[in-house]
Design goal:
Elements: E1 7-15, H1 19-27, H2 29-35, E2 42-48, E3 55-61, E4 67-78, E5 82-90, E6 98-108, E7 111-121, H3 124-145, E8 154-158, H4 163-175, E9 180-183, H5 189-194, E10 202-205, E11 208-211, H6 213-223, H7 234-264, H8 270-290, H9 303-315, H10 319-325, H11 329-339, H12 342-345
Parallel strand pairs: 8-9
Antiparallel strand pairs: 1-7, 2-3, 3-4, 4-5, 5-6, 6-7, 8-10, 10-11
Helix pairs in contact: 1-2, 4-6, 4-9, 7-8, 7-9, 8-10, 9-11
Bound molecules: glutathione (GSH).
The site of glutathione has 10 residues, from helix 4 and helix 6.
Amino acid sequence: MNRAPSFELQLSREIRAPRERVFDAFVTEAAMRQWMCPRGMTIPALEVDARVGGGFRLTMRSRDGDQFSAVAAYREIARPERLVYTWQWVGEGMPNIETLITVAFAERGGATEVRMTHTGFPDQGLADSHQEGWGSCFNRLADLLDPRGTAASVALLGDARSTYTRTARMGLAEKGVKYALESCGPGSPPVAELHPFDRIPAFRDGDMRLFETSAILRYVEEAFPGPSLLPQNIRDRALGEQWVSAINSYMYDAMVRRYILQYVFRKNDRAVIEGAVKDMEKQLAALERAYTRSFLAGQQPALPDYFLAPIVGYLEMFPESQALLARCPKLMRAHAAIKERPSWKETQP
Ligand SMILES: N[C@@H](CCC(=O)N[C@@H](CS)C(=O)NCC(=O)O)C(=O)O
């Protein structure tokens, strides 16, 4: 066995639960199964013998079916303050090293601060990759123990009136992911911290940060269980991506920036509005032709529909776009169906 105990990682997280409960979640099989693998993975096999001298053997499975197993041996179990155990990946292609995990549990006014130190990595890259993995596990630990569920870790920063914020909220709602909505506008200090271009929405899952609505929803799609946000087959997924890209690249500019915002901010610049209406006419006609089935990329609503619906919601409010929408019966039928969904109703600005 190789030992190269020179690199380590440290992670701490405050969890809104009593210390005993948090400690027990580290040594109880039923609880460990629910959190001891990164988001998007499952634990098909786990055996735990929670005694000093005992240990556990855990297998994680990715969405693609790849399996990774690790064995651990308990060195110290001092409930509810401290836990020490070894950690070693087993199997071909895995780092053949025994590392050491120390977890300290401290009371913090009704919550518990968990501090994990994982030592013994032969290089910083391996330590960093474990840091990301454990960060994701800690998100799941918080989901499990915190009364807010996933909203303990998952936050969306944005303004309920923004179409992109609403798209992200609809995706989260369709997926059944609870989140905290941190109300803030483009360029506000909390957004600037997460978004280099100062737009909304921005997204946090514990230490993990993202910006760009389609990236946020791709993460949500893969990291959480729940109904898929994507169209159902290869062709429709590509078609869905095509419409998301077209909305981002062309339609948002004409429909939102140059049209809706003229009214919302009462600028009423006729030249800008008329230029936008000309572009929108072409865009809406292309969308209308695309509805060969109930929704943009299939018989079920999916990502492209959640990108379009908040924009159409505004287009319904102003005169030129009302006239254009009247020429789009298929689009409006799809929009009416979206408006019946809880994800639309619960994200009203
Ligand atoms: N491509 C970005 C676009 C985000 C975006 O443009 N958001 C608008 C609000 S709906 C915004 O922040 N606008 C402020 C600005 O343009 O300064 C995404 O997909 O999230």
